Amino acid sequence: MSEIKYDWTKEEIKAIYDKPFMELIYEAATVHRENHNPNEVQVSSLISIKTGGCSEDCGYCPQAARYHTDIDKNDLMSLEEVTQMAENAKAGGASRVCLGAAWRNVKNDTDFDNVLEMVKGVNSMNMEVCCTLGMLSQDQARRLKEAGIYAYNHNLDSSEEFYKEIISTRGYDDRLRTIEHAQNEGIHVCSGGIIGMGESDDDRVGMLYTLSRLNPHPSSVPINGLVPVPGTPLEEQKPVSIWEMVRMIATARIVMPRAQVRLSAGRTYMTQEGQAMCFMAGANSIFAGDKLLTTPNPEYNEDMELFDLLNITPKKAYVDGAQPQTKESYKEVRETEQAKWSRPEHKIEANELKKAEAKEVRKVTRVDSLN
Known about the structure:
TIM Barrel, alpha/beta, disordered C terminus, 10-stranded parallel beta sheet, two-stranded antiparallel ribbon, 371 residues
């Protein structure tokens, strides 16, 4: 097993990134085989549980309310809809479901309560549950953990230096703070970024540098190729080449040897040969299904055909961590508490408590006045 290193420098990572292509792939493939089964790939499915209307200005995102795109917007899905889609994903070979909502940050409201129920429901299907909901407070991370979440996705997108060129409504530190909140609760972190937004090679290295210094490293590192969407500020960007994707995946594999490096958005531009080269370079996770939130993606049957061709087996759930235990339903908790305090004896207790508190206040006030 490769040594886990948390003190990478940008210069060290850049030296890896700049290696001759064949040498880079060979080293990455060697590291991959030391730490993972090279013939096993984890399959995730991404469900957009709430689409569009986001208040942020991420230059790549068609879900931002300020951009005029042709996406189909929808309010938060029902538990029944999400459960059915998760069942379909499981039947297609997925072992993880990621629930994505176009929010800037999570709010403590009924929508969040409903998301917690979705998390609990998918967890009960013996699937890993991941969420990407925007910024989280520490308490919200705790509630997600209690509901049975396995991982939380919060991408850095790019380097700290380039970040402000594509987003102004949320700071880089805000993203790192949400990651910290998830890690504090023992939630696996899924965090990576996007290449092809106009960033430099140094920016790509800078993103990996920040991720590599997290302790622990993210358990999943998605590498996305930008999918330019008409109506967004980045609509004129050209898709990145397969050579750039492989170089980025290989570098991530060497720097974070035990993470799942996920081949994410942009696979529709890749040939089967290109995807096979990504797997050789250390990618061992994909998003499957016909959409990634709002952008096209290969369908399950296409991926399974490729897996058969390459003799790849879908990875089972909970190989890298135990299934989270859930607390009782938050709706049940609220209903139980409401029923409890509506009983006559508890109304009496509450009234007596209020009288006692008022008596103490009068006593303190009287003493203060005498002094």
